Amino acid sequence: MTAKREYKHIVFDIDGTLIDTEEAILQSLKDTVRDMLHKEIGKQELKFALGIPGSAALRKLGITDTEGAKDRWNGHLLKYKSRIRLFGGIPQLLENLKMNGCRLGIVTSKTRNEYTTDFAAPFALSGYFGTVICEEDAPRPKPYPDPLLTYLDTARIKAGDALYIGDTLYDCQCAQNAGLDFGLAAWGNAAAQGVPADYIFRRPVDVLLSLSGNSGSVSKNGIYDLLHSYNISYEVTEHKAVYNMAELTDVSFPYPESVAKNLFVCDDRKRNYYLITVKGDKRVDLKAFRRTYGTRPLGLAKEEDLKTVLGLTPGAVTPLGLLNDKGHKTQFFLDEDFLSPPSIIGVHPNENTATVWLKTEDLLRIITAHTGPVKIVPFH
Hints:
There is one protein chain. It contains twelve helices and 16 strands. With about 375 residues, it is α/β, with parallel strands linked by helices. The longest helix is centred in the first third of the chain and has 16 residues.
């Protein structure tokens, strides 16, 4: 993975990245080959066509009348329109990136007409995108660098200012040839895991999590989107901003026995950081913690460390802030009592104006997936 950059533009491919078109494209191409070449070619053999202009794919198949074949292909594609859908989480991702100040663009092998009829019109997402580069806008198609170079020239930015996200080797090669970092949309093409990439995004929300260093903490809505992407059930209690446990006594909670108390501490040399999460009615003895786990002298981390390491503000300390710890500087210690029935935990969603309630095992699933092991220990 490349060192993190401050990207001004996030540029997306369309097919296999924003919308799931693989089945519709391959089946309609299979029908077209049958019409034009009078032979059957399996969909697996036709996968090379994903990510390059339709005319280029047809020429590779030995079809000389590419214009006539494209008309047939588009006709067949209409039969399979119902199989085309947005990938789950894409609208939320685009909205969060926009809210975080990212400029969004598209570089696609679709023609301008195909962009309008296949994407812009049916999915009503074109308003998110400023610069859109289609097949006819560049001299040569992917994997040549021309489409992305045209984007850079049109947007008046440098290669280092943009990240290109796509799902095929052609997308990767186009990015590499143009000098851009590349993010693999693995949610759209599980078979493309071997494609070299600076980032591998297994879910759309992973884009937001991986790039949150561009604009600070993952937002409250970003946390909710993450929970949705994991199919995690949760409840939310909205409340006034709170800065300590005492202020929570005025809030009516559905699971008061499951409220978490969170301490973000560091040693006296600021070399090691610890997030300690215990039941709300417990007291944490830092001297005893030091003796048990062999740390140097501990104290509460300063506000600037909280912001730098976890991307949080005072009052908002939460295990979900670990998603912002890209350097994995923090060791997480969780009170084992949260695993006892009802096994629910209430934590802030990176902001202190709400508490989100979820199963402890679901919280652990998210944290371990993004940050590594959790130490589940007793606190008395």
